[in-house]
């Protein structure tokens, strides 16, 4: 079981992701924006940051960079419809981050999270 911090601005998608990950046995704390997720990250230790990239305010890449300063070694997975943005060197996304492109099946998300946590 992993303790996961989820940052996703789409409320319905966020609810589906939380339900799928909790069914798989993970603990999930979810926020609708990067700023609130970062505030939580400063207080609670997480195993995985699961974040959308494109969000208003603090985007997922900036959230991941700040998270690495607060919790070195935190695993990062981006869920995005803009995978090319995350993978572009100029994005400054963490090099170790996993990217899962939208749309994806919830089963695929759970499998990728499990794989990442086992690594």
Task: Name its key features.
119 residues; alpha/beta; Rossmann fold; five-stranded parallel beta sheet; 5 helices; 42% helix
Write a structural description.
This protein has 119 residues and is of the alpha/beta class. It has one domain: Rossmann fold, CATH 3.40.50. The chain is 42% helix and 21% strand. It has a five-stranded parallel beta sheet, sandwiched between helices. Helix 1 packs across helix 5 and helix 2 packs parallel to helix 3. The model has no long low-confidence stretch (mean pLDDT 90).
SSE topology:
Elements: E1 3-7, H1 11-23, E2 27-31, H2 34-41, E3 48-52, H3 60-70, E4 75-80, H4 83-87, E5 98-101, H5 106-118
Parallel strand pairs: 1-2, 1-3, 3-4, 4-5
Helix pairs in contact: 1-5, 2-3
Largest sheet: 5 strands, parallel
**Strand fraction:** 15-25%
Percent helix:
40-55%
Instruction: Tell me the number of structural domains.
Output: 1
Helix-strand makeup class: alpha/beta
Mean pLDDT: 90
Q: Terminal Cα separation, in Å? A: 13 Å
Rounded to an integer, what's the Rg over CA atoms? 13 Å
Work out the number of β strands.
5
CATH structural architecture? 3-Layer(aba) Sandwich
Can you summarize this structure?
The protein has 119 residues and is of the alpha/beta class. The chain has one domain: 3-Layer(aba) Sandwich (Rossmann fold).
């Amino acid at each position: 079981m992993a303790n996961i911090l989820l940052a996703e601005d789409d409320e319905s998608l966020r609810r589906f992701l939380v339900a799928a990950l909790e069914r798989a046995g993970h603990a999930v704390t979810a926020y609708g924006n990067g700023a609130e997720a970062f505030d939580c990250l400063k207080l609670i230790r997480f195993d995985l940051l699961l974040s959308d990239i494109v969000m208003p305010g603090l985007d997922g890449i900036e959230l991941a960079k700040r998270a690495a300063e607060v919790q070195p070694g935190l695993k990062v997975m981006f869920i995005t419809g803009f995978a090319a943005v995350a993978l572009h060197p100029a994005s400054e996304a963490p090099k170790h981050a996993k990217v899962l492109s939208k749309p994806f099946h919830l089963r695929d998300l759970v499998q990728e999270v499990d794989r990442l946590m086992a690594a």
